[in-house]
Design a protein that fits this description.
Chain lengths: 391, 361
């Protein structure tokens, strides 16, 4: 895609400034409605998820103590993988967003949470919550657009380095947690001399400590505990496979958030003096959802409701499903396209883009996918004057 | 998540075992898993289990609690802070410990439900035996001096009887001359009525009861008639704010404030006004903040280095604990208050001062 501001058919041209502000007011109302009904059943939900995850993890690790027997190996590995996925997605990601801070429980709070991941919570919160969620899909500001190693938009300049990006992407998927840690360290920025050396070294130390603790747990302590039954090798392998599964899964889910076809990007200048309504609009058009079962939604940490999450990153994740129909209705009424698709379709679409844009634009254009059907613009906008500056 | 303090000296082997357990559970602590089975064993978070509930009056309830294993006991007259989750939100309030000496390690508090009171109503009407509550170690200076006074005067009103009952249950037999003047609206509102009468019958206290619905509030000037030797008595007072203020003024006039110990149940009210003074406890710095601007902006303008992030209320990069006072959510107008000892986490980027407030920074 091309930055929305440079498109021939600007998908928001039919909206006036007042329309956009009205849209903002409607979204604020949905937010208020969720906040005013947040309560004990939400609190019970997150506590239940945490309980299930910890129980599953303990159970799986216990089973792995006997993992030289095949069935134990399989059961333990599957259980540990699911537990690690739950821990990172529905629990870690969302708690660190402050979605549960309103409970005032210091044990489930964005300021105290640490997750089962190579990247320390403090670094991740900065690069994810502050940068990515503030500058979502703004070219040159949001590093999530290709993580600095890939070109995922026609408006990102091509260089021969990107020919290899399908490979970079696959390698990144397999080692995703380390990719995240490297990304949160802002290594690229450091080597360009744009990051303070002391801060970088402090952060590097934090990451080093975190990785050491994570590795010691998964690849030393638990295999040693399984040694008495002669299961240390299998336990080590099970931990590796669980981390790998978690990496591949989270990488796929994250790719589906902003890379599939139909998601819009924005120019740097377009966010100067952005109003609240315009900020909401950017989140709506800059994210894509995944359709699927309840289990799939939980396994993605409800990031399958990426649009709802980006509109309201600090609302409890269990509520996104509930407000999704209202959000979809707003899209329809304002003539905007709600980008959504099944998991295989979105993963395929994201990968397709990574492969296609490894080529320079004139070659990539030859393989351009058919654009998704745009939402019909409701009649009431057709009579209105188009927005003067399409910014 | 917070590493435990190494306050209890453990043998070396246990120390090593604990280190291995931590290495096996990182980034969590072993106790985060133990919590699944027994929340009372936590070393870092004191909790208690409700053992029994006993009704005292139509709106007062005694809650018998088994504290977690790190509970360090209390001195009679002290209070503990109790945390309960109400509509999913953790709320803390202080309650005086009313139990006497016990061999089973349990303690009790006695709560009077206040009309519209969030926590007191929850404790009296919703709480059930078996539930787990959050607690803090006992605290407070409303306790008997090491050397027991020869003559004492206890002045209580309403639920203010609670810390005094805690003291009497422990020490009534050791005290020689105690006058207890207790006020309550009506006879049926008197908490611990039977036990107080028994103490009087046993000669441990001289009990004076006042029913304010018919007799009106106690005027300190009446003391000369009711307890002629009140000037000679070490006095402990606990009750409504108005009563305590009147007593303090009276003792002050008599030049006897050193003999008056009083316990307040309510902090001076923070009327959420148009902004206020923000005090940063760590920096020891005060700032005037108006009611319309985020504390974050005002503080930064004044050169305070504040944690911050998106500056629009979504990233929680700016959260600071509010120790006392009130802030207003600029988005909703909702006011959040904290009483002394609280640590309500607030986002400074969307909160304005709504009265004086203490922030930890
Ligand atoms: C050191 C200490 C010891 C205490 N010991 C006890 C005790 O043993 N038993 C006990 O029942 N309470 C005790 N309290 C009071 C208790 O902590 C709560 O303040 C009280 O239960 C009201 O809390 P709430 O959440 O129900 O009311 P809130 O929801 O906080 O307040 C609701 C309304 O009631 C008013 N209000 C608050 N407190 C009182 C009060 N005490 N009297 C009248 N109106 C009030 C408020 O201004 C507000 O308008 C103690 C307080 C302190 C500081
Ligand atoms: S700075 Fe982001 S929530 Fe306050």
């Amino acid at each position: 895609m091309t930055a929305l501001q440079k498109k021939e058919h600007n998908p928001i041209a039919h909206l006036s400034d007042q329309d956009i502000e009205r849209l903002g007011v409607e979204l604020d109302a949905i937010r208020d409605q969720v906040i005013s009904t947040r309560g004990s059943s939400d609190a019970a939900y997150i506590r239940r998820v945490i309980k299930v995850q910890r129980g599953l993890e303990m159970g799986s690790r216990a089973v792995l103590l006997a993992s030289r027997w095949k069935p134990a190996f399989v059961v333990g590995t599957v259980g540990l993988s699911v537990s690690k996925i739950l821990e990172n997605m529905e629990i870690g990601h969302n708690v660190m967003h402050g979605q549960w801070d309103w409970m005032r429980d210091p044990k489930i709070h964005s300021t105290t949470w640490e997750w089962d991941n190579a990247s320390p919570a403090s670094l991740w919160k900065h690069s994810h919550n502050e940068l990515h969620h503030t500058y979502t899909n703004v070219l040159g500001r949001d590093n999530d657009l290709g993580y600095g190693i890939m070109r995922v938009d026609e408006d990102q300049r091509w260089s021969p380095f990107y020919l290899g990006q399908p490979v970079w992407n696959f390698v990144n998927a397999c080692f995703f947690e380390y990719g995240i840690a490297a990304y949160d360290l802002e290594i690229g920025k450091y080597f360009k001399g744009k990051k303070n050396k002391e801060i970088f070294q402090r952060d590097l130390k934090k990451v080093g400590v975190k990785i050491r603790q994570q590795m010691t747990k998964d690849y030393v302590v638990h295999p040693l505990l399984a040694a008495p039954t002669g299961s240390w090798k299998q336990t080590l392998l099970a931990n590796y496979l669980s981390n790998l599964t978690r990496n591949l899964w989270t990488h796929s889910v994250i790719m589906c958030g902003h890379f599939p076809e139909g998601v819009e990007t924005f120019t740097r200048k377009s966010i100067d003096g952005e109003t609240r309504g315009e900020w909401y609009l950017r989140q709506m058009l800059g994210s894509a959802n995944i359709n699927g079962s309840r289990a799939m939604h939980i396994a993605t940490g409800n990031l399958s409701y990426q649009i709802e999450h980006h509109l309201f990153p600090d609302l409890p994740s269990n509520r996104y499903q509930e407000i999704a129909p209202q959000i979809r209705d707003i899209f329809n009424r304002y003539g905007l396209t709600y980008t959504s698709g099944s998991l295989p379709r979105q993963v395929g679409s994201a990968w397709m883009k990574v492969i296609r844009l490894s080529l320079p634009n004139h070659l990539a254009a030859k393989f351009a996918p058919r654009p998704r059907k745009a939402a019909p613009v409701p009649l009431r906008f057709k009579t209105a004057a188009p927005k003067a500056d399409a910014a | 998540m917070t590493p435990p303090t190494q306050e209890d000296r453990v043998p070396a082997w246990r120390h090593h075992a604990f280190r291995i357990a931590r290495a096996a559970t990182t980034p969590l602590l072993p106790e985060d898993y133990v919590d699944l089975f027994n929340p009372l064993r936590s070393r870092t978070h004191l909790r208690g289990r409700v053992v029994a509930l006993e009704r005292e009056t139509s709106d007062a309830m005694t809650v018998l609690i088994r504290p977690g294993r790190t509970w360090r006991d209390h001195r009679p007259g002290q209070y503990t802070r109790i945390g309960v989750d109400i509509d999913g939100v953790r709320m803390w309030r202080a309650y005086s410990i009313t139990s006497g000496p016990r061999t089973d390690g349990c303690i009790s508090i006695t709560v009077k439900a206040i009309t519209g009171g969030t926590v007191s109503t929850h404790l009296v009407r919703i709480l059930r035996p078996g539930q787990v509550i959050q607690m803090e170690q006992a605290d407070g200076e409303f306790v008997l001096p090491k050397v027991l006074p020869a003559k004492m005067l206890l002045l209580t009103g309403g639920s203010g009887i609670t810390p005094v009952m805690g003291i009497l249950r422990h020490a009534a037999t050791d005290l020689d001359d105690v006058v207890l003047l207790h006020s309550a609206p009506r006879p049926e509102d008197v908490i611990f009525a039977d036990e107080l009468r028994d103490l009087a019958a046993g000669g441990h206290v001289r009990l004076l009861q006042r029913h304010t619905d018919t007799d009106g509030m106690l005027n300190p000037a009446e003391l000369d008639a009711l307890v002629p030797d009140w000037r000679d008595r070490e006095t402990f007072a606990c009750g409504p704010a108005g009563m305590l203020e009147a007593l303090e003024a009276h003792w002050h006039e008599a030049g006897l404030v050193h003999q008056l110990h009083s316990e307040r149940f309510r902090p001076a009210l923070t009327e959420p006004g148009e902004g206020g003074t923000v005090y940063f406890t760590g920096l020891d710095r005060e700032l005037e903040c108006d009611g319309a601007r985020p504390i974050l902006d005002v503080a930064e303008d004044e050169g305070v280095i504040m944690p911050s992030g998106c500056r629009m209320g979504i990233c929680y990069g700016c959260v600071l604990p509010l120790r006392e006072g009130a802030v207003r959510d600029l988005r909703t107008g909702e006011v959040t208050t904290a009483s002394p000892g609280d640590g309500v986490l607030i986002q400074t980027c969307i909160s304005s001062a709504a009265g004086r407030c203490d922030l930890d920074l």
